[in-house]
Amino acid sequence: MTAARKLDEDEAMGDRERRDIVSGEIMPEHRLIRFVADPDGNIVPDVAAKLPGRGAWVSASRKAIIEAVEKKLFARSLKAPVKADADLGERTEKALVSRILGDLGLARRGGNLVLGFDNVARMLDSPRAPALLVEASDGSKDGKRKLFNAAYARGLKPVVMECLTSAELGLALGRDNVIHAAVHPGGLAERLTLDSKRLNALRGADESLHADVSKAPVSGREQKTKVKP
Predict the structure, then answer these.
(1) Domain ranges of the chain
(2) Percent helix, strand, coil in the chain (nearest 5)?
(3) What single string gives the DSSP state of each residue in 106-139?
(4) CATH 3.30.1230.10 fits 3-86, yes or no
(5) Cβ distance 33 to 97 under 8 Å?
(6) Hey, CA dihedral for 177, 170, 32, 27, is it positive or negative?
(7) Range 8-23 burial, b when 16+ CB lie within 10 A, else e
(8) Which fold has domain 93-223?
(9) pLDDT tens across 143-182, in order?
(10) pTM score
(11) Which of 74, 147, 159, 207 is least buried, going by the fewest C-beta atoms within 10 A?
């Protein structure tokens, strides 16, 4: 299978709907996490929704996963004597972080990601503007604000992904102190957008941390000037 075809199949994940075994609500897959039983009957997270076997879907929140474990809802849904450990929520978060970090590394190796304030600022003025701004959750608010305002002033509406720390970003991108990055439009940007929303939900982060820069305030001085760090 080619990488392009794999991305197409993954993008379709956001269009399908499944029933959350905790609430009973029908939701799009990008708001849910799939779980399956391994050969030993232990429940494991399947964040890519690719593992074989019957799956059980749970809303992407730590509270919902804990409830599914405590009420033994996986066994009921899968109709099998499966075991779900108390640390399932933590393992799910780690699996999702690993998937996001892998995709960021893939984007960089494929030439679809740039690093650093100056490179991101130049990308905002390029013919191929970014679809996704990646900002370290523990980075400087001033630098983020300048990039948000610059994108807004240019009529751009990239999604802002702010669910990973500088250390986590550095692990994926092979560089220390990563604060600002940007991803070109395409399948990876779309998949990263969906997965980062799920990670925010798992971590209980404010949705404003995954905002659209179209809502950013723009100062008159920054509106039409070159972006400065």
Answers:
(1) 3-86, 93-223
(2) 50, 15, 35
(3) HHHHTT-EEESHHHHHHHHTSSS--SEEEE-TTS
(4) yes
(5) no
(6) positive
(7) eebbebeeeebebbbe
(8) 60s Ribosomal Protein L30; Chain: A; (3.30.1330)
(9) 999 999 999 999 998 899 999 999 999 988 988 889 999 9
(10) 0.82
(11) 207
